[in-house]
Amino acid sequence: MQSLWRWQAIFSAQTPVREPKPVNSVTYQRGQATAQKMLCASCHLPNYAGRQQIPRLAGQQEDFLVYAMKQFRDHPGLGRDTIMAASLYGLKDDDLDDLAHFLANFK
C-alpha cells in the first residue's frame, strides 16, 4: 500500500498538460455554480488539486472527467466509491458536461 501511495504522490505532483481549447464562459460559470452547490472543494480542496486518495480534478482532460463522473453516477455498487455516487446522484448529463468544462479549465 505504501508503494501505491508513493506513486500517487508522484503523479499528483506533476503539472497537468493542457491542450489549448476555447473556454465557453457560460458553460464555465454553470459548472462553477454546480461545483459550489455540490461542495466539490470540501474534499478535492479549493484549488481542486486533490489530496492523498482524493484525485486532482483541476486541469484534467474534459472528456475523462465526464466519463469518470458518469461511471460514478450510473454504476454504483459494491467496491465503488459510494460518496461520489451519492454526490453525483440526480445530476443530469448537461450538469456533468458543465462541471467537467469548469474543472478542466480551472486555474
Describe this structure in words.
The protein has 107 residues and is mainly alpha-helical. Helix content is 57%, strand content 0%. It contains 6 helices and no strands. It has helices at residues 2-12, 25-38, 41-44, 62-74, 82-88, 93-104. Helix 2 crosses helix 6, helix 4 (62-74) packs across helix 5 and helix 4 (62-74) packs antiparallel against helix 6. The chain starts with a helix and ends with a helix.
Concise structural overview:
The chain is mainly α and 107 residues long. 57% of the residues lie in helices and 0% in strands. Helix 4 crosses helix 5.
Annotate the secondary structure layout.
Elements: H1 2-12, H2 25-38, H3 41-44, H4 62-74, H5 82-88, H6 93-104
Helix pairs in contact: 2-6, 4-5, 4-6
Taken in chain order, the helices and strands follow as HHHHHH
Structural class: mainly alpha
Estimate what percentage of residues fall within beta strands.
under 5%
- What number is the mean pLDDT? 88
Largest sheet: none
The radius of gyration over CA amounts to: 14 Å
- The low-pLDDT segments are none
Distance between the termini: 31 Å
Number of strands: 0
Anisotropy-based shape:
globular
Helix content: 55-70%
Helix run count: 6
Characteristic key phrases:
107 residues, mainly alpha
